[in-house]
Design brief:
mainly beta, lipopolysaccharide transport protein A fold, 5 helices, about 60% strand, disordered N terminus
Length: about 550
């Protein structure tokens, strides 16, 4: 039984093989035909308006040698090969093998399709796989783009050129360079693999795995990608770019560097609008600006930075935290303008300057643009300053309606408390011994500080005040109404500006990145919009 089955299978295979018919090349026309065994043994010599046909391809030339037994033809002079309406090949010399449907052409070769034309010196065309390839420098042009490369391959059915060495795509608006570029002639879609650049008038793009739509001027870039403008550098694991709208967005490990203002914005999602000179960043968002020899770090759920250099504004919304070595704080929203050097801390602000804790309804920090240092402070409504007594367990406290402070070398050196001013202060002598506790109420208080210690304190329109021996002032009288010490909330490092839930999100995203590194290194999967491009046109 097994032998019978084997014979049936063998018979089927033989029938299939021998059933494949190889059509002969048909000589449709020639002004003159001759056989010259001396000049070309085994060939029919054809001259003048030669026209040959084979399975849908039409070949014309001035002269040809036709080898009937081999089903082979050599063509000379003004050679043309036409395959329906998909391909038009010309050259000075060509060969065509009808058995394997393979064409070879050389000498000022031109290969044209409805979308593009290729000019090179030598080309091979496999009609079975519908692939043409060259290794002798080629120039490809269409309405908008010119591509030059040392070698390339054209996939007729996919309408795709593939370049694997030194390809340059030139467009009036930009130049693409790569060692691996797949270009779809119908859609203008380009897929970049390996180190690749896109250089435009206003920016420079680098990627090692990217996509660029040359018709819509949009792109998507992965793996070590960045977009560089004159004064901005945009980095991220995944970048999107729209040249027409002058817009870029980035996802995962986003970093936007401002080279002029020495600022860096980070997060896991960001958008940049060049025309408006603005950017938006979220998902563990932060911005860092260099101030003199120090840096200010600001975090918010959402950060928006707008305006030209010199008049730039930072807005932060929800759970704002900031840190500088001599200053840190928290609030609900922040608004900071570069030109006015005014920073507004809005809704439940708290500020720490060295050992001083300051709170109030609204806070304004005013800087000095020349020195790049803090100049003054305003705390409006319910102003409250607290600092720990340097040696004891008590707290020095000052409160009032409004507070106005002045900075020297970023340290508070003078403070005015205006309206309904109250103070509790632990007095010590030169030997640091406690003299008493000053508890006072007046309309205004002026304090001068040195090394964060009160040097002098002046009361205006004193209403009531007394210095109590420590034993005569009970613990419950040593705190002003509204006292809340929040030292455990103090932001001591730049890492403290991020809440726990955002650190957890960041750790999760970094783990996902590590797990997907191999996947992200693979060439991009061909997009559905590329594969379905011609389908859209026929609908």
């Amino acid at each position: 039984m097994k032998k019978v089955i084997y014979l049936i299978v063998l018979l089927f295979q033989l029938t299939f093989v021998f059933g494949q018919k190889t059509n002969k090349i048909i000589i449709e026309n020639a002004d003159f035909q001759d056989i010259n065994e001396f000049e070309m043994p085994g060939a029919l010599l054809l001259t003048g308006n030669v026209r040959a046909l084979h399975d849908g391809i039409v070949m014309t030339c001035n002269k040809a040698y036709y080898f009937k037994d081999e089903n082979y033809i050599k063509a000379f002079g003004n050679v043309q090969m036409v395959q329906g309406d998909t391909l038009y090949l010309t050259g000075k010399y060509a060969e065509y093998n009808g058995n394997i449907k393979h064409a070879y052409a050389t000498g000022n070769v031109s290969l044209r399709s409805p979308e593009m034309s290729l000019v090179t010196d030598t080309i091979n065309f496999d009609r079975v796989s519908q692939e043409a390839y060259y290794k002798s420098n080629g120039t490809i042009t269409n309405r908008d783009n010119t591509l030059k490369s040392k070698s390339g391959r054209y996939y007729v059915l996919q309408k795709k050129y593939q370049f694997l060495s030194e390809v340059v795509l030139t467009n009036p608006k930009y130049v693409i360079k790569s060692n691996h570029l797949d270009y779809y002639t119908n859609s203008g879609h380009s897929y970049l693999v390996g180190p690749s650049t896109i250089t435009g008038k206003d920016n420079f793009i680098y990627t090692e795995n990217g996509f660029y739509n040359t018709k819509k001027n949009t792109g998507h870039f992965l793996k070590k990608s960045y977009i560089k403008y004159k004064d901005r550098l945009i980095e991220g694991d995944s970048l999107y770019y729209d040249r027409v709208k002058e817009f870029a967005s980035a996802s995962r490990n986003v970093k936007i560097t401002d080279s002029i203002n020495k600022g860096v914005a980070k997060g896991h999602y960001g958008e940049f609008y060049k025309k408006q000179d603005s950017l938006f960043i979220t998902k563990r968002a932060s911005v860092r600006y260099l101030m003199e020899k120090d840096s200010m770090f600001i975090h918010a759920k959402r950060l928006v930075i707008t305006g030209k250099s010199g008049d730039r504004t930072i807005r932060g919304y929800n759970n704002v935290r900031f840190f500088k070595t001599d200053l840190s704080g928290k609030c609900d929203s922040i608004h900071s303008n570069q030109k006015t050097a005014l920073t507004k801390l809005i809704n439940r602000p708290i500020l720490w300057n060295f050992e001083n804790q300051m709170t109030g309804d609204v806070m304004h920090l005013i800087g000095n643009n020349d020195s790049q240092k803090l100049d003054s402070l305003k705390v409006l409504n319910n102003a409250f300053i607290i600092s720990k007594d340097t040696l004891g367990t008590g707290y020095n406290q000052v409160k009032g309606q409004n507070l106005y402070g002045k900075f020297r070398e970023n340290k508070l050196y003078e403070v005015d408390i205006v309206k309904n001013a109250e103070v509790i202060y632990f007095l010590r002598n030169d030997d640091k011994e406690l003299i008493g506790i000053n508890k006072n109420v007046s309309s205004k208080i002026n304090m001068e500080l040195d090394q964060n210690n009160i040097e002098t304190i002046t009361f205006f329109n004193n209403v009531a005040g007394e210095i109590y021996p420590e034993k005569e002032l009970p613990e419950n009288a040593r705190k002003l109404r509204g006292f809340v010490w929040r030292g455990d909330e103090r932001i001591l490092t730049k890492e403290d500006i991020f809440p726990a839930e955002e650190n957890e999100m960041d750790a999760k995203m970094q783990a996902e990145k590590k797990a997907n590194e191999a996947k992200d290194s693979k060439p991009m999967k061909i997009r559905k919009e590329t594969l379905d491009y011609d389908k859209k046109k026929t609908k």
